């Protein structure tokens, strides 16, 4: 198979992944109407929008492509904390004629969990190996986040809300089942493409897999924001919730199920870039605000970092 066929195959698989991801988004939005913003946005929507990367990681591990698994796990943070946040900021400012996105006080819990996840990921990067022990440790931030969110949700007064459960589940199955089959071909295409272009598999998967896998998350965010300005917190919560999962659960899965562990010595540059992006984004939204200029800066940061990574890997 020549490089042009590989590029075409990868492009088609990205489009199919995007369509499956959109069905997942529709199903999740149907289910989230029955829950509060934190559970709906951060946990449910975040969990389901991270489903494509989760499938990619599991399939890559089963195939023995650990660098592809790593790139898929951390690549979402790179694109969502830059391009994703930039899109949220610009969409909100254009729709509602304001220069600053203001998030609800409830978002503080996401910030705490994100900081804990960031600290754990940084420690694992310094250690330089993903194994059973570091994999289990990596799971802790997400367990803390979900249990904290559930306790908060349980303490609220419950009201009957709209939302068609059967319709939501049908959308999730329609998007999730095909994605499981597509992902195996996608992972193989990424591995083969990286061999042809001469870039490390972790870099190729870090760039390409999130573009397809995160498509529905950006679409969901824009759709939520267009409906109501109050939905911006839910949109950002879904971003942060899914990336907390990526940094903890997906990294943990790789460590736990990789035979003999995975050395990170050759991948520290990519991990450092993701950690840097996460630190910058966390710093910008620590006051629960995100300005239009800051959104543009994050958009630019993505292309700058990808260019640097491509240059250093060439």
UniProtKB/TrEMBL annotation:
Which GO BP terms sit in this record? intracellular calcium ion homeostasis
Q: Where is the Sodium/calcium exchanger membrane region domain?
A: 11-148, 168-309
InterPro entries according to UniProt: CaH_exchang (IPR004713), NaCa_Exmemb (IPR004837), NCX_ion-bd_dom_sf (IPR044880)
What is the annotated localization of this protein? Endomembrane system
Q: Which GO terms describe its molecular function?
A: calcium:proton antiporter activity
Write out the transmembrane intervals: 6-26, 38-62, 68-94, 168-187, 193-213, 247-265, 271-286, 293-312
Membrane topology label: Multi-pass membrane protein
Q: Spell out the Pfam families in the cross-references.
A: Na_Ca_ex
The UniProt keywords, alphabetically, are: Ion transport, Membrane, Transmembrane, Transmembrane helix, Transport
Name one cellular component (GO) term: membrane
Under the heading PANTHER family, the entry gives: SODIUM_CALCIUM EXCHANGER MEMBRANE REGION DOMAIN-CONTAINING PROTEIN, VACUOLAR CALCIUM ION TRANSPORTER
The entry's protein name is Sodium:calcium antiporter
Origin species: Sulfuracidifex metallicus DSM 6482 = JCM 9184
What is this organism's lineage?
A: Archaea, Thermoproteota, Thermoprotei, Sulfolobales, Sulfolobaceae
């Amino acid at each position: 198979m020549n490089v042009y066929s590989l590029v075409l195959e990868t492009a088609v698989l990205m489009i199919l992944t995007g369509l499956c991801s959109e069905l997942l988004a529709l199903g999740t939005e149907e289910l989230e109407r029955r829950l509060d913003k934190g559970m709906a946005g951060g946990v449910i929507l975040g969990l389901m929008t991270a489903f494509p990367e989760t499938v990619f990681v599991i399939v890559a591990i089963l195939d023995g492509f650990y660098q592809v698994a790593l790139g898929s796990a951390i690549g979402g943070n790179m694109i969502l904390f830059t391009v994703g946040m930039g899109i949220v900021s610009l969409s909100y400012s254009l729709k509602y004629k304001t220069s600053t996105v203001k998030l609800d006080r409830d978002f503080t819990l996401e910030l705490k969990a994100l900081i804990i996840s960031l600290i754990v990921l940084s420690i694992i990067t310094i250690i330089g190996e993903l194994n059973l022990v570091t994999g289990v440790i990596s799971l802790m931030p997400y367990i803390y986040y979900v249990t904290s969110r559930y306790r908060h949700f349980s303490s609220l007064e419950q009201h009957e809300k709209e939302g068609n459960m059967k319709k939501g589940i049908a959308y999730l199955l329609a998007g999730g089942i095909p994605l499981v089959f597509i992902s195996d071909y996608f992972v193989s295409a990424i591995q083969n493409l990286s061999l042809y272009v001469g870039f490390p598999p972790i870099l190729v998967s870090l760039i390409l897999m999130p573009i397809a896998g995160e498509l529905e998350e950006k679409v969901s965010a824009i759709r939520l924001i267009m409906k109501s300005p109050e939905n911006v917190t839910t949109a950002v919560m879904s971003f942060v919730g899914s990336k907390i999962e990526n940094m903890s659960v997906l990294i943990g899965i790789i460590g736990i199920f990789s035979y003999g562990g995975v050395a990170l010595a050759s991948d520290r540059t990519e991990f450092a870039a993701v950690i840097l992006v996460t630190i910058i984004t966390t710093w910008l939204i620590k006051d629960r605000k995100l300005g239009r200029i800051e959104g543009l800066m994050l958009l630019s940061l993505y292309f700058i970092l990808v260019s640097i990574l491509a240059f250093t890997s060439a």
